[in-house]
Amino acid sequence: MIPLLRNLAADNARPRVTYYNDATGERIELSGSTVLRWVNKAANWLQDEMDAGPGTSVHVDLPADHWRAVYWILATWAVGAVLSDDPDADIRIGLDDPTADLSEPEASLAPSDITSQPDAFTAYVDPAPEDLAVDLGGAQVPYAALLATAPRQTPRVLVTGDLAQTLLTTYARDGSVILLRNEDVDKRAARLLAEGLPLA
User: Fold this and answer.
1) Distance from C-alpha of 44 to C-alpha of 139, rounded to nearest angstrom
2) Exposed / middle / buried, residue 79 (Cβ in 10 Å: 0-12, 13-18, 19+)
3) Backbone angles phi, psi at 153, to 5 degrees
4) What is the DSSP code string of 119-157?
5) What residues does each domain of the chain span?
6) What is the pTM of this model?
7) Among 141, 139, 140, 144, which residue's Cα sits nearest to residue 128?
8) What digits encode the pLDDT tens for the residues 168-196?
9) Rounded to whole angstroms, how far apart are CA atoms 99 and 179?
10) Which overall architecture, per CATH, does domain 3-194 show?
11) Domain of life here (predicted)?
């Protein structure tokens, strides 16, 4: 298990993803155990159905503000594959996209094609520190970056930039992320206050 996932497993009851969708009125909290379960299902699909492993490129073609993107990014790293922004990557995960290798539903409660995958995951090949983990527009990050230790703290972070980088830095520090989809900006101040975040 990669260090980011070990952090989630160590305190698996605490919320690790808080997801708002102002178009539907949803507010969903995912605990560490729930995030891990989805990561494991996605990683099993990547490894067993698509033969993904170190060197495989995966394009997570999901909106960065959708909660499903979180577990696909982490699952890509769990199998040692490379997260890529190239739509012609070896594997493409889409949202309501029948042309993708796997298409996730937009609706949070709609069933995913990976639901039947096992809840536990063991990588056939553990990622090596020198393996490339992220290749986004020429910004290449070796897997060693995922193994770096960081001060243990519990930050809550509103995702406003690159989701993969935010997950890396936040979960390495044992934190949690907040995603705002279809945001009603008039609600932001009250929402940040309710979530214990400083006003942006």
Assistant:
1) 27
2) buried
3) -150, 180
4) S----SSPPPTTSEEEEETTEEEETHHHH--------EE
5) 3-194
6) 0.91
7) 144
8) 888 878 889 999 999 999 999 999 898 88
9) 26
10) 3-Layer(aba) Sandwich (3.40)
11) Bacteria
Please tell me the distance from the alpha carbon of residue 164 to that of residue 54, in angstroms, as a whole number. 18
Q: C-alpha angle with apex 61: 186 to 14, nearest 5 degrees?
A: 60
Structure tokens at 43: 């990683």
Residues in Cβ contact with 146 at an 8 Å cutoff, skipping those fewer than 6 apart: 2, 3, 4, 77, 127, 133, 168, 172
| Interatomic CA distance for residues 101 and 95, integer angstroms | 11
Which two tokens mark 67? 């909660």
Per-residue pLDDT reduced to its tens digit, 2-26: 767 887 888 778 899 999 999 999 9
Q: Rounded to whole angstroms, how far apart are CA atoms 174 and 190? A: 25
Helix (H, G, I), strand (E, B) or coil at 174: coil
Q: Which two tokens stand for residue 190?
A: 């009250």
Token pair 């009250």 in the structure block, residue: 190
Q: CA-to-CA distance for 133 and 57, rounded, in angstroms?
A: 9
Query: Is residue 26 helix, strand or coil?
Result: strand
pLDDT, tens digit, 9 for 90 and up, residues 115-146: 999 999 999 987 776 776 777 666 677 766 65
